[in-house]
Amino acid sequence: MLQYRLRGSLERRIYLSDAANAFWLWLLVWKGSFLIFYPIDVITQPMSLLYFDGGERGRWIASLVTASYIWYRNSKQNLSVKMWIDMGIWFTLSGWLVYHLLLLITGEESSLYHTANAGMTVLLLISLLVSQKGSDSGSGLNHAVWFSIGNVLLSFLVADRPVWLLSFSKQQIIFLLAAACLTGWSWLDEKQQKGGPHG
Asked: What confidence tens digit (pLDDT) does each residue in 98-112 have?
Protein backbone atom coordinates (compact mmCIF):
# COMPACT_ATOMS: atom_id res chain seq x y z
CA MET A 1 0.00 0.00 0.00
CA LEU A 2 2.82 2.40 0.84
CA GLN A 3 4.45 1.80 -2.54
CA TYR A 4 1.18 2.67 -4.23
CA ARG A 5 0.73 5.78 -2.07
CA LEU A 6 4.25 7.02 -2.87
CA ARG A 7 4.03 6.50 -6.62
CA GLY A 8 5.46 9.54 -8.38
CA SER A 9 7.12 10.89 -5.22
CA LEU A 10 10.73 11.99 -5.71
CA GLU A 11 11.73 10.78 -2.23
CA ARG A 12 9.92 7.45 -2.65
CA ARG A 13 13.03 5.30 -2.05
CA ILE A 14 13.99 7.23 1.10
CA TYR A 15 10.47 7.05 2.57
CA LEU A 16 10.12 3.33 1.85
CA SER A 17 13.56 2.56 3.26
CA ASP A 18 12.90 4.53 6.45
CA ALA A 19 9.41 3.01 6.80
CA ALA A 20 10.81 -0.52 6.46
CA ASN A 21 13.54 0.25 9.01
CA ALA A 22 10.94 1.71 11.38
CA PHE A 23 8.79 -1.43 11.07
CA TRP A 24 11.70 -3.78 11.83
CA LEU A 25 12.88 -1.55 14.67
CA TRP A 26 9.38 -1.62 16.20
CA LEU A 27 9.24 -5.41 15.91
CA LEU A 28 12.70 -5.91 17.46
CA VAL A 29 12.05 -3.53 20.36
CA TRP A 30 8.63 -5.08 21.02
CA LYS A 31 10.03 -8.62 21.07
CA GLY A 32 13.18 -7.56 22.91
CA SER A 33 11.21 -5.71 25.59
CA PHE A 34 10.50 -9.11 27.16
CA LEU A 35 14.18 -9.09 28.17
CA ILE A 36 13.72 -5.71 29.91
CA PHE A 37 10.60 -6.75 31.85
CA TYR A 38 11.49 -10.40 32.55
CA PRO A 39 15.31 -10.72 32.52
CA ILE A 40 15.34 -13.72 34.91
CA ASP A 41 13.02 -15.70 32.61
CA VAL A 42 15.25 -14.98 29.61
CA ILE A 43 18.42 -15.95 31.52
CA THR A 44 16.92 -19.22 32.77
CA GLN A 45 15.16 -20.01 29.47
CA PRO A 46 16.69 -18.06 26.54
CA MET A 47 14.18 -19.59 24.10
CA SER A 48 11.40 -17.68 25.87
CA LEU A 49 12.56 -14.58 23.98
CA LEU A 50 11.33 -16.23 20.76
CA TYR A 51 7.89 -17.09 22.11
CA PHE A 52 7.04 -14.12 24.32
CA ASP A 53 7.03 -10.33 24.04
CA GLY A 54 6.72 -7.34 26.36
CA GLY A 55 2.95 -7.12 25.96
CA GLU A 56 1.22 -3.75 26.01
CA ARG A 57 4.14 -2.01 27.76
CA GLY A 58 6.46 -3.40 25.10
CA ARG A 59 4.21 -2.04 22.34
CA TRP A 60 4.30 1.44 23.92
CA ILE A 61 8.10 1.37 24.24
CA ALA A 62 8.47 0.11 20.67
CA SER A 63 6.14 2.85 19.41
CA LEU A 64 8.08 5.57 21.26
CA VAL A 65 11.43 4.28 19.98
CA THR A 66 10.07 4.08 16.42
CA ALA A 67 8.56 7.58 16.60
CA SER A 68 11.93 8.88 17.84
CA TYR A 69 13.70 7.13 14.96
CA ILE A 70 11.31 8.64 12.39
CA TRP A 71 11.69 12.10 13.96
CA TYR A 72 15.51 11.75 13.86
CA ARG A 73 15.54 10.61 10.21
CA ASN A 74 13.07 13.33 9.27
CA SER A 75 15.15 16.06 10.92
CA LYS A 76 18.33 14.85 9.18
CA GLN A 77 16.82 14.56 5.70
CA ASN A 78 14.25 17.37 5.97
CA LEU A 79 11.39 15.18 4.74
CA SER A 80 7.73 16.23 4.84
CA VAL A 81 6.07 15.61 8.22
CA LYS A 82 2.67 15.53 6.50
CA MET A 83 3.86 12.73 4.24
CA TRP A 84 5.05 10.73 7.26
CA ILE A 85 1.67 11.19 8.94
CA ASP A 86 -0.08 10.20 5.73
CA MET A 87 2.09 7.09 5.41
CA GLY A 88 1.41 6.23 9.05
CA ILE A 89 -2.32 6.41 8.40
CA TRP A 90 -2.03 4.17 5.31
CA PHE A 91 0.15 1.71 7.23
CA THR A 92 -2.19 1.65 10.25
CA LEU A 93 -5.32 1.12 8.16
CA SER A 94 -3.69 -1.66 6.12
CA GLY A 95 -2.37 -3.39 9.24
CA TRP A 96 -5.73 -3.02 11.00
CA LEU A 97 -7.51 -4.64 8.06
CA VAL A 98 -5.10 -7.60 7.96
CA TYR A 99 -5.33 -8.00 11.75
CA HIS A 100 -9.13 -8.25 11.77
CA LEU A 101 -9.20 -10.50 8.70
CA LEU A 102 -6.76 -12.88 10.42
CA LEU A 103 -8.91 -12.90 13.57
CA LEU A 104 -11.94 -13.73 11.42
CA ILE A 105 -10.09 -16.56 9.64
CA THR A 106 -8.85 -18.07 12.92
CA GLY A 107 -12.39 -18.03 14.33
CA GLU A 108 -11.92 -15.58 17.19
CA GLU A 109 -14.95 -14.57 19.25
CA SER A 110 -16.85 -11.37 18.39
CA SER A 111 -16.90 -12.22 14.68
CA LEU A 112 -19.47 -9.46 14.07
CA TYR A 113 -17.05 -6.91 15.54
CA HIS A 114 -14.13 -8.14 13.41
CA THR A 115 -16.28 -8.25 10.25
CA ALA A 116 -17.60 -4.72 10.83
CA ASN A 117 -14.10 -3.42 11.60
CA ALA A 118 -12.64 -5.00 8.46
CA GLY A 119 -15.52 -3.59 6.39
CA MET A 120 -15.09 -0.09 7.81
CA THR A 121 -11.34 -0.21 7.17
CA VAL A 122 -11.84 -1.34 3.55
CA LEU A 123 -14.25 1.58 2.99
CA LEU A 124 -11.76 4.04 4.49
CA LEU A 125 -8.90 2.68 2.35
CA ILE A 126 -11.04 2.94 -0.80
CA SER A 127 -12.00 6.48 0.20
CA LEU A 128 -8.32 7.34 0.71
CA LEU A 129 -7.44 5.90 -2.70
CA VAL A 130 -10.15 7.95 -4.40
CA SER A 131 -9.53 11.20 -2.50
CA GLN A 132 -5.75 11.13 -3.03
CA LYS A 133 -5.73 10.01 -6.66
CA GLY A 134 -3.20 12.16 -8.45
CA SER A 135 -2.54 14.12 -5.27
CA ASP A 136 0.94 14.35 -3.84
CA SER A 137 0.12 16.04 -0.56
CA GLY A 138 -3.10 14.39 0.55
CA SER A 139 -3.65 14.45 4.26
CA GLY A 140 -5.49 11.46 5.66
CA LEU A 141 -6.26 13.20 8.97
CA ASN A 142 -10.01 13.20 8.28
CA HIS A 143 -9.89 9.49 7.53
CA ALA A 144 -7.97 8.90 10.76
CA VAL A 145 -10.67 10.79 12.69
CA TRP A 146 -13.42 8.64 11.13
CA PHE A 147 -11.33 5.52 11.81
CA SER A 148 -11.09 6.48 15.49
CA ILE A 149 -14.79 7.33 15.83
CA GLY A 150 -15.73 4.14 13.98
CA ASN A 151 -13.66 2.05 16.39
CA VAL A 152 -15.30 3.71 19.40
CA LEU A 153 -18.76 2.83 18.03
CA LEU A 154 -17.87 -0.66 16.81
CA SER A 155 -16.39 -1.59 20.19
CA PHE A 156 -19.93 -1.52 21.60
CA LEU A 157 -20.52 -4.71 19.57
CA VAL A 158 -18.20 -6.52 22.00
CA ALA A 159 -20.49 -7.36 24.93
CA ASP A 160 -17.76 -8.52 27.33
CA ARG A 161 -15.36 -5.61 26.80
CA PRO A 162 -13.76 -4.41 30.06
CA VAL A 163 -15.38 -1.09 31.05
CA TRP A 164 -12.79 1.46 32.13
CA LEU A 165 -14.53 4.85 32.38
CA LEU A 166 -18.30 5.46 32.22
CA SER A 167 -19.40 2.86 29.66
CA PHE A 168 -16.18 3.03 27.61
CA SER A 169 -13.28 0.59 27.53
CA LYS A 170 -9.66 1.74 27.67
CA GLN A 171 -9.34 1.25 23.90
CA GLN A 172 -12.44 3.38 23.28
CA ILE A 173 -11.07 6.19 25.48
CA ILE A 174 -7.77 6.11 23.56
CA PHE A 175 -9.64 6.28 20.24
CA LEU A 176 -11.81 9.17 21.53
CA LEU A 177 -8.69 11.11 22.59
CA ALA A 178 -7.06 10.35 19.23
CA ALA A 179 -10.16 11.60 17.38
CA ALA A 180 -10.20 14.82 19.44
CA CYS A 181 -6.47 15.48 18.89
CA LEU A 182 -6.66 14.70 15.17
CA THR A 183 -9.73 16.93 14.75
CA GLY A 184 -7.91 19.81 16.46
CA TRP A 185 -4.82 19.21 14.35
CA SER A 186 -6.86 19.09 11.15
CA TRP A 187 -8.63 22.34 12.10
CA LEU A 188 -5.32 24.11 12.84
CA ASP A 189 -3.84 22.81 9.60
CA GLU A 190 -6.83 24.14 7.64
CA LYS A 191 -6.51 27.53 9.34
CA GLN A 192 -2.80 27.66 8.52
CA GLN A 193 -3.41 26.80 4.87
CA LYS A 194 -5.99 29.58 4.60
CA GLY A 195 -3.43 32.11 5.81
CA GLY A 196 -3.29 31.84 9.57
CA PRO A 197 -5.86 32.37 12.31
CA HIS A 198 -6.72 35.91 11.14
CA GLY A 199 -6.84 35.07 7.42
From this structure: 989 998 898 878 889
- Domain ranges (residues) in the chain: 1-79, 84-199
CA distances from 133 to 91, 97, 120, 158, 187 (A): 17, 21, 20, 35, 23
Q: Rounded to whole angstroms, what are the CA distances from 163 to 114, 145, 160, 167, 189?
A: 19, 22, 9, 6, 34
Rounded Cα–Cα distance for residues 66 and 91 (Å): 14
pTM greater than the 0.85 cutoff: no
User: Of 151, 33, 7, which Cα lies nearest the Cα of 92?
Assistant: 151
Cα R_g (the chain), whole angstroms? 19
CB atoms within 10 A of CB 182: 22
